[in-house]
Amino acid sequence: MENVISFIIIFGSLVFFHEFGHFLFAKRAGIMVREFAIGMGPKIIGIQKGETLYTVRLLPLGGYVRMAGEDFDTVELLPGYRVGLILNPQDEVTKIYLNSNVSNPDVLFLETEEADLNDKLFIKGYDDEGSLVRFSVSRTAVIYEKGQKTLIAPKDRQFDSKPLMGRFLTILAGPVFNFILAFFIFVALGLLNGVPTNEPIITEVQANSPAQAAGIEKGDFVKSSNGVEVNTWNEFTETIQDNAGQTINLEVERDGELVTLQVTPKEMKEAGQKQGQIGVYYTSPVEKNPLKAIAYGAQQTWFWIAKIIELLGMLVTGQFTLDALSGPVGIYKATEEVAQYGIFNLMNWAAVLSINLGIMNLLPLPALDGGRLLFFLFEALRGKPIDRQKEGMVHFVGIMLLMLLMLVVTWNDIQKFFF
């Protein structure tokens, strides 16, 4: 149960921040957000606040921000449709009932002749006395149908009516907020655990190794290699790996004095490549410094962005197969394993997952945020939007293909972990 809760908290947090990015920038652009949902499937909890319904849904495998003007959002009153209306003192329509079974005595019934709930905001029709009347519709009017109520969305509150840059930023904000979340998690780790100093200090020397033969001792602080100053442990290890079988002149600080040593790295094979090793171990000291924690957060975020992009490139070039991909089942199993090593490892895993989610959503594939951003790019180049029906068809096909891919990946995960 602890593993299940860990998975739900981590995945729910990643989805929340992703959708919160969309939500925040939609609000800034003046777009009506109808629903902010965490999870998919049947609704568990729903709270209406203002014009937005905030929901938690059964399956913790995603979420969404439903904005006005998207597919299946508009209500069209066709000629001959009988509606009930509630008017305010200014004779503006504030409530529209799409059925005639209304017991309120203040309801005025009309047989619709013409209506526009999108742009001009009016309803014209025949009342029960046969007179043709016309009423303006309030911008905050509510439509009631089968027990559900929906705010109308004037054209200037709809997603497609906003300038290109506003729409672009609204979609881009989701993945960007995943990167921001990862940054803050890494900063928190730097504050709580301390930031590795990465200083080139030998913490252990393996017996019968080239390092021991050269006289290297525990606590030696490497200052230079072949006359080149060494500032970090990574620089030191790169020098060792790149000089297999070649003698290296090291200068180390020991007990406040400089000592010159010569070591010849042993040639070893790793991942099919020849690398030098001398048999030393390293445990980085840590430093708790707020400024360094911020720098550490930025460095780790950038490192993992580059690493995941590199792995994606390997997948595209055929160095990985689909078997290397993991879906929700694989992520759950990995979370289960990481959780055994403590909260800090779990936080680090959450940050990496957040970056991964952000990058995956930026891929220029239909139905993903990256696919929508690609259509905005086409719009900018053409000077006009792509036909909505054509774009919708592309996204629909993309959703079907992504669902197929998810089924394949999930099946692979099930076979891998349970059979």
Automatic annotation (TrEMBL):
Report the domain of life of the source organism: Bacteria
Extract the InterPro entries matched here: PDZ, PDZ_6, PDZ_sf, Pept_M50_Zn, Peptidase_M50
Subcellular locations according to the entry: Membrane
* Listed EC numbers: 3.4.24.-
What membrane topology does this protein have? Multi-pass membrane protein
Q: Its principal location? A: membrane
Q: Name one GO molecular function term.
A: metallopeptidase activity
Q: Keyword set for this entry?
A: Hydrolase, Membrane, Metal-binding, Metalloprotease, Protease, Transmembrane, Transmembrane helix, Zinc
Keyword Zinc attributed: yes
Q: Which cofactor is essential here?
A: Zn(2+)
Q: What is this protein called?
A: Zinc metalloprotease
